[in-house]
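Saturday, quiet lab. Running sequence design on the structure tokens for the scaffold JK sent over.
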């Protein structure tokens, strides 16, 4: 009887009215930059916290590069993340399609090839013999630059050609650009605008001009397959908040830019100069549309550039069922071109 009574008392204690309810947890990765605007704004204003409710704890995790996001996801350290297309492709392929799904779009546009005025580059033919930078070997802009060079009948020096590509972190790209040690760079915003405004460069290629209707994926939201399977309701609430934030950004660009810049300053210690921010914002399109067709084209370009061992099968990389349901509930159109 003593054992039974003890067990009963333990059970009563576990169900006691004063015991706080266990909270669910959601760990979200993002970058402190303009192409992850929904994450920065939604975390700052409390949109995601309000959507998820008081019994859910949000753990934001800040990153500076896509590959580190994928490694964290592989290690089970994050559930959702805002990330560019090429790291998502790599993570999907490396895991045999098991680790992640793209569940929502975030940003379209916002990348450009900027050249120095004194570089003598006025068109693609002038790139021969020049040195161009990209943010990271095999990243989204690096692949775009290599694809552009190939499409214009040139090749890179590592393939026996005449165009040198120097993968370098964005802050160092700006320094090298100012010093005249590189002739140009294919970079995302706000770095394209910084090269233009602070480095005295000019836009040779706005990447939007290379895509149908000027739209291509720059960032989207991925979920670990485990989290998507176990907590689809939290994914739904997050996506619903993401859509609402995107609508607010589009309707109130000045307020959105001000809040975004204050968050970037808080996280990095430096705000973006207003002229740079205005220029960068004009080239991006906050969205929930993942622009699927552009991702598939980018994957093919990455394979042809040698960054993937084989032509990837991405037939299962998207799971847009929750996004579609959210959009249906709001009487908003579903994204076109879904696989």
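Result came back. Writing it out in full:
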């Amino acid at each position: 009887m003593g054992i039974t009574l003890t067990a009963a008392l333990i059970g009563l204690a576990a169900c006691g009215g004063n015991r706080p309810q266990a909270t669910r947890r959601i760990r979200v990765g993002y970058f402190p930059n303009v192409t992850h605007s929904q994450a920065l704004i939604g975390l700052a204003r409390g949109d995601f916290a309000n959507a998820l409710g008081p019994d859910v704890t949000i753990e934001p995790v800040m990153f500076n590069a896509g590959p580190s996001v994928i490694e964290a996801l592989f290690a089970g350290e994050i559930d959702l993340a805002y990330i560019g297309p090429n790291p998502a492709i790599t993570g999907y392929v490396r895991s045999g399609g098991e680790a992640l799904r793209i569940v929502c779009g975030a940003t379209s546009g916002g990348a450009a090839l900027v050249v120095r005025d004194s570089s003598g580059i006025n068109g693609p033919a002038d790139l021969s013999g020049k040195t161009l930078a990209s943010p990271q070997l095999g990243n989204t802009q690096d692949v775009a630059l290599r694809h552009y060079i190939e499409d214009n009948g040139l090749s890179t020096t590592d393939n026996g050609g005449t165009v040198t590509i120097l993968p370098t972190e964005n802050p160092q790209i700006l320094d090298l650009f100012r010093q005249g040690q590189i002739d140009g760079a294919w970079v995302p915003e706000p770095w394209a605008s910084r090269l233009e405004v602070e480095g005295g460069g000019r836009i040779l290629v706005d990447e939007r001009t290379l895509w149908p209707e000027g739209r291509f994926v720059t960032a989207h939201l991925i979920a670990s397959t485990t989290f998507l399977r176990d907590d689809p309701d939290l994914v739904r609430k997050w996506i619903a908040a993401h859509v609402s934030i995107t609508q607010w950004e589009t309707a109130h660009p000045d307020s959105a830019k001000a809040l975004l810049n204050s968050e970037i300053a808080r996280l990095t210690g430096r705000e973006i100069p207003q002229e740079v921010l205005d220029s960068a914002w004009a080239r991006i399109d906050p969205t929930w549309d993942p622009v699927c067709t552009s991702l598939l084209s980018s994957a093919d370009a990455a394979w042809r550039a040698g960054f993937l061992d084989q032509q990837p099968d991405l037939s299962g990389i998207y799971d847009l069922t929750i996004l579609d349901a959210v959009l249906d509930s709001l009487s908003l159109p579903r994204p076109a071109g879904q696989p």
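Notes for JK: The domain at 111-214 is CATH 3.40.190.10 (D-Maltodextrin-Binding Protein; domain 2). The two ends are 63 Å apart (CA to CA). Ask whether to fix the surface positions before the next round.
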